[in-house]
Amino acid sequence: MATTVSQAPLQPIRRLSGGWRVVAGKELTDHLISIRFFILIAIMGLSAIAAVYSAAGGIREASAAIDSDFPGLFLKLFTIQPESSRIPPFFALVALLGPLFGIAFGFDAVNGERSQGTLPRLLSQPIHRDDVINGKFVAGLSVIGLVLVLLTMIVAGVGIVRIGVTPSVSELIRIVGYVVVSIVYIGFWLALSSLFSVVLRKASTSALAAIAAWLVASLFALLFVGIVADIVSPVPDQPTIDEQIANAKTQRNLSFVFPQSLYQEATIALLEPEQRTFDILGLISLQNPQSGAIRGPLSLEQSLSIVWPQVTGLIALTVICFAGTYVAFMRQEVRA
User: Fold this and answer.
1) HSE-up of residue 161 (Cα within 13 Å, Cβ side)
2) Taking the mean position of all CA atoms in its chain, how far away is CA 133?
3) What's the CA gap between 266 and 268, in Å, rounded?
4) What is the spatial distance between Cα 247 and Cα 231, in angstroms, rounded to a whole number?
5) Where are the domains of the chain?
6) Confidence (pTM)
């Protein structure tokens, strides 16, 4: 006698919700018309114009840089700092001031809604809870990308007028890569400040925590790294070359904990084609004229191979911070 096997009804597969688009659109509109957006873009815009004017003046003063065949001439607008100028190059300004964008658009992402009493009403709509945190992060990242693209276009436009040189295709690709890396770098600070906004109840406290993390990573990172490196790889009063190299390697490895170090190395490798390595022994070999090391600018593929570990580290830090934000928000209880 044949037996029939009863099959359980198939469960419908949940489709990806489009609620995050609604949240992202609303948050993006709020960001673009907010006072903080205009204040930050004014600060970054003035800093970018000052940096490119200073760099263009230094390029025009250098007789070797006037030649249009000079490798990476247009990229010097983003990296060069004349000796007579106190204004840092553009990439250094982005490394220092860029995190303010991520902090400004993330420190009150969740606790701001909670303090205003709008978070329970937002979640009572036909929007999934994860759509809220995803939409807010996408909106903040979109504003960051828009600002970086605008600033880069300003630098490029002013540079073309000042030095009279247009970028090549390879230089344009390097600039696009630099913008992408900058978005990931500032996206880390957006994810970190969003994490503080979920964990901490007050927006002022989360803003203070994010700014403290930014100051520690920007101003005291080298001090902390140097102290720990001296403990791990001490340098005596009369050190040998091996001891000095070991200490320098330890400092570089420890600096990778901070996103600024990863961002600076990635930026230098993209915007300076002549940068061949960041390894201590490799740099010593390049400085020795008798080493026989090959000199000259690298191709785009070679520069990308150098920059890939740093970019991967930045992406990993950003993903870890956003994953912590996501998990913490999903586990929180929202009361009306």
Assistant:
1) 8
2) 20
3) 6
4) 9
5) 19-219+256-288+296-331
6) 0.85
Residue-level pLDDT, tens digit, the chain, 336 residues = 444 444 444 444 444 557 788 888 888 898 889 898 899 888 888 888 888 877 776 666 554 444 555 556 788 888 877 776 677 888 888 888 899 989 999 998 888 888 887 777 777 777 788 888 999 999 999 999 999 999 898 888 888 887 777 888 888 999 999 999 999 999 999 999 999 999 998 888 999 999 999 998 888 888 888 888 888 888 887 778 777 788 888 888 888 888 998 998 899 888 888 877 776 655 555 555 544 455 667 788 888 888 888 899 999 999 999 999 999 988 877 665
| Pick from 187, 188, 210, 186: nearest CA to 198 | 210
Q: Provide the residue count of the chain.
A: 336
What are 53's two structure tokens?
A: 């004017």
What value, to the nearest 5°, has the Cα angle with vertex 322 and ends 306 and 205? 120
